[in-house]
Amino acid sequence: MHVVVGVSGGIAAYKACSLVRRFTEGGHDVTVVPTAAALRFVGAPTWAALSGKPVSTEVWTDVHEVPHVRIGQSADLVVVAPATADIMAKAAAGIADDLLTNTLLTARCPVVFAPAMHTEMWEHPATQGNVETLRRRGAHVIEPAEGRLTGADSGKGRFPEPEDVYAAALAAVDTRGAAGAGSPDPARAEGDREAGSAAYGPMGLRGRTVVVSAGGTREPLDPIRFLGNRSSGKQGLAIAHAAARRGARVVLVAANVDLPTPPGVTVVPVETTLELKDAVETAAREADAVIMAAAPADFRPASVSASKIKKGTGPEAGLRLELVENPDIVKGLVASRDGSRRPVIVSFAAETGDASGSVMDHARAKFAKKGSDLQVVNEVGRDLAFGRDDNTVHLLRRDVPEVVTVGPAGKDVIAGAVLDVVEDLLG
Questions:
Q1: Residue 295 belongs to domain spanning
Q2: What is the enclosing helix (H) or strand (E) of 219?
Q3: On the CB side of 184, how many CA atoms lie within 13 Å of its CA?
Q4: Residue 142 assigned as binding residue
Q5: Spatial CA neighbour of 103 closest among 218, 170, 95
């Protein structure tokens, strides 16, 4: 596969070196097209050594070969990494003032942008408008990661990890079919599709909006204490990450999750069950699927002390709490569909067996009560499910009588199984 790696002028240009190496080690024919600004960060000899080809930024080099047209025409994939606000603005406006922007205008293959810039630049309405324009025209714009930026700044705008960009690029080719995109080697194209699917998943959710909740809510007792649970949020984050890799626009409503945000995911942080309810319901208005992997508290204190609750003394010492029931978020989402089948709703049932029934007995009763389309059931308790990297779940579908068991397996495998069902339900 002929891959063009465009490098624009950001400090993350050095990370593109790893990306180019991944493509070349994967057996792809790579042409690096840097901007003049990019060469101030990484020199032309480096790009030439990594790609095995001479490097130019100008349309005037080897004019007889018409490089400003031929490079884009012959490409099976174009990846711009890093993609600065400047290069995306030029691409959206159709400006062609150097070799890279000319290549972007002439390319008729999948084009992937991996943005990297400061948070303020990424969030600016001009940049967001350009991103929407590029996506509307069919380009793949990866959401930037969150983390340390240039200098002491942190926030959204960090260049995604090179392996994530590589996987996203292969997945972009997979949506078009690499063999049909000008690849001279059908066997290589098939290998590309397999690699993309293994690392980044099929793009069956492209164009869909998926809302995922994760973590455990906290219900405050006073300014210091709260009622909570053991949910780590790992499974919800794995689902959000997998959905983004399948091409979805993902909104992650995170309840007290202390884990890195997956690349390509928009995070809405919440603390309490009522905050979780409001955030999920707001996001669900535009969603194709809502996956409720969070563990919301069933009860909350009837009142919250404005100051720290002190220990008592004497024979009557102790603390008595009045609790009120929290709303059932899943039932509310189901009711709001008003007979429609959208969004697809996935509930989670973290259950323990007791004298009145087994884990599955309670899970089936909950499934019937909630009315969701898919319920993911797991047995919880100390050293079970919460906080672990592996798990066993049972999938109950409204439209299928059989129970599907997945695991013991990692969170990513379970995430894939859940999303396979979601894709099927979406049709």
A1: 209-302+323-426
A2: strand 219-220
A3: 7
A4: no
A5: 95
3-state secondary structure of 411: helix
Do 359 and 397 fall into the same domain? yes
The string of pLDDT tens digits covering residues 401-422 is: 888 888 778 888 889 899 999 9
Indicate the burial class of 315 (C-beta count within 10 angstroms; 0-12, 13-18, 19 or more). exposed
* CATH code at position 416: 3.40.50.10300
Exposure of 227 in the CB half-sphere (CA atoms within 13 A): 17
Judged by DSSP in three states, 194 sits in helix
Let me know: does 151 contact 121? Beta carbons within 8 Å: no
95-104, pLDDT tens digit by residue?
998 999 999 9
Residue 70: its H or E element: helix 67-74
**366 annotated as belonging to a binding site for a ligand:** yes
Same domain? For 355 and 412 the reply is yes
65: which DSSP letter? G
- Catalytic residue chosen out of the listed positions 102, 229, 378, 391: 229
Q: Where are the alpha helices (DSSP H) in 221-318?
A: 234-245, 273-284
Can you give the CATH number for the domain in which 99 is found?
3.40.50.1950
CA distance 184 to 407: 40
Say which amino acid occupies 378. Answer: N
What are φ and ψ of residue 66, in 5° steps? 50, 60
Sign of CA dihedral 106, 110, 115, 120: positive
Residues 126 and 238 reside in one and the same domain: no
- Is position 34 annotated in a ligand binding site? no
Is 102 one of the catalytic residues? no
Q: Is 328 annotated as a binding residue?
A: yes
When mean pLDDT is compared across 19-28, 149-158, 193-202, the lowest value belongs to 193-202
- Report yes or no: 233 and 259 within 8 Å, Cβ to Cβ: yes
Surface-to-core class of residue 197, CB atoms within 10 Å of its CB (0-12 exposed, 13-18 middle, 19+ buried): middle
Q: Is 359 assigned to a binding site?
A: no
- 375 close to 360: Cβ distance less than 8 angstroms: no
Whether the CB-CB separation of 195 and 276 falls below 8 Å is answered with no
Cα–Cα separations (whole angstroms), residue 282 to 190, 211, 285, 329, 421: 41, 10, 6, 12, 24
Q: How many Cβ atoms are within 10 Å of 211's Cβ, its own excluded?
A: 31
